[in-house]
Write a structure and sequence with these properties.
The chain is of the alpha+beta class and 158 residues long. The protein has one domain: Gcn5-related N-acetyltransferase (GNAT) (Aminopeptidase), CATH 3.40.630.30. Helix content is 28%, strand content 32%. The protein contains 4 helices and 7 strands. The chain has a 7-stranded mixed beta sheet with strand order 1-2-3-4-5-7-6, sandwiched between helices. Strand 4, helix 3 and strand 5 form a beta-alpha-beta unit. The mean pLDDT is 90.
């Protein structure tokens, strides 16, 4: 049994550990991924900014993540658009539907808040993400090179 709930500042350490583990399992070095400071103050960075940050918890989940098995959120970009961020599933919980549950809930909440478009970026080397987003009706809208990483942009109108 899992619980889907809004993240709080008390989840910060577990979210950082989960995020780093997910990045590592995708073949990237978490220290090479900039801009993750928002996980250290999630209520201010997401909720107070008009966004959402959700976590999926499982009582028997991995101890190293305090029971968190997945997380994801969005932040407003402008009046019509949100950016999907921090989508991560614990490596040992991937394939169990947690990512789908998160993205569907985030899309629903963004739509209810009046947003018309969701954008996100991932890297081409994250093969699971490259398959996950098109499977959820996201369309690739561009690519750019950032150092050694090919960054892929996706978009969807929920």
């Amino acid at each position: 049994m899992t619980e889907l709930r809004r993240a709080t500042d008390a989840d910060s350490d577990a979210m950082v550990a989960l995020h780093r583990a997910a990045i590592r399992s995708a073949g990237s070095d978490p220290d090479d991924v900039p801009g993750n400071e928002d996980l250290y103050d999630p209520e201010k960075a997401f909720i107070d900014a008009g966004g959402e940050l959700l976590v999926v918890c499982r009582p028997d989940g991995p101890d190293r993540f305090d029971g968190l098995v997945a997380m994801g959120g969005y932040k407003p970009r402008d009046e019509a658009t949100v950016e999907l961020l921090r989508m991560a599933v614990a490596p040992d919980a991937q394939g169990e539907g947690h990512g789908s549950r998160l993205i569907e809930t985030l899309e629903s909440r963004a739509r209810a808040a009046g947003y018309e478009r969701i954008e996100l970026e991932t890297t081409a080397r994250q093969e699971r993400a490259m398959a996950f987003y098109p499977a959820h009706d996201y369309t690739e809208t561009g690519r750019r090179q950032v150092d050694e990483c090919e960054v892929v942009r996706f978009e969807k109108s929920p």
